[in-house]
Design a protein that fits this description.
Layout lengths: L31 H5 L5 H9 L20 E2 L26 E7 L19 E7 H9 L12 H18 L4 H4 E2 L4 E2 L1
Parallel strand pairs: 1-3
Antiparallel strand pairs: 2-3, 4-5
Length: 187
């Protein structure tokens, strides 16, 4: 199983099995990295420009792992392991999210060799979303990202608490109910 730079497991054998489309891929199949960051890798940008900036993976026999600038980060609507959906509380700035970003590989600083480099540096950042509870299980045990898992009871309780708070926000309260007239503070 792959490991983080600190040596804890990430829960997969091959991060590319969970990798989605590249973050640099535009809707029309062009490489945004070559268009926007040509100065970072001029040779790569020249090759893409010669091919009308088409994504390298669009060529025959190319996969995501073949592109030197591939990156797949998930925005996270639900946990990929147990399916727990995120509910964000916009009015609570100190509320900890239910979902966290989980790295399957670390761009340019990993501890082991996925791409065949002798140095062991991973050149691609690949992330998925895991709930806090699955994230802890993956890093502290032999739990895998692809396990058939149900949400933890604590996770379900936290989600239902947020749903209750969210529904309470939809209720109508008049201004006289929201503000105490004597102290002019919220009730």
């Amino acid at each position: 199983m792959e490991k983080t730079p600190k040596g804890t497991p990430v829960g997969v054998d091959d991060p590319y099995e969970f990798a989605g489309r590249c973050d640099h891929l535009t809707g029309d199949g062009r490489c945004r990295y070559a268009l926007s960051h040509a100065g970072n890798d001029p040779e790569f940008a020249r090759e893409r420009r010669a091919d009308d900036y088409c994504c390298l993976v669009g060529e025959a026999d190319c996969e995501w792992r073949d592109c030197p600038h591939y990156r797949s980060t998930i925005d996270g609507r639900e946990c990929v392991r147990c399916g727990l959906a995120e509910i964000r509380m916009a009015h609570e700035s100190d509320a900890r999210p239910l979902l966290e970003e989980h790295h399957l590989s670390y761009g340019g600083g990993g501890s082991n060799d996925v791409d065949g480099d002798d140095e062991g540096d991973l050149s691609h950042e690949i992330t998925v979303s895991l709930c806090r509870w699955c994230h802890a299980k993956v890093h502290t045990s032999f739990a895998r990202v692809d396990d058939d898992a149900n949400p933890d009871t604590e996770a379900l309780a936290a989600r239902e608490q947020r749903r209750s708070e969210e529904q309470a926000e939809f209720g109508f309260r008049s201004a006289s109910e929201r503000f105490d007239r004597t102290t002019d503070e919220r009730s």
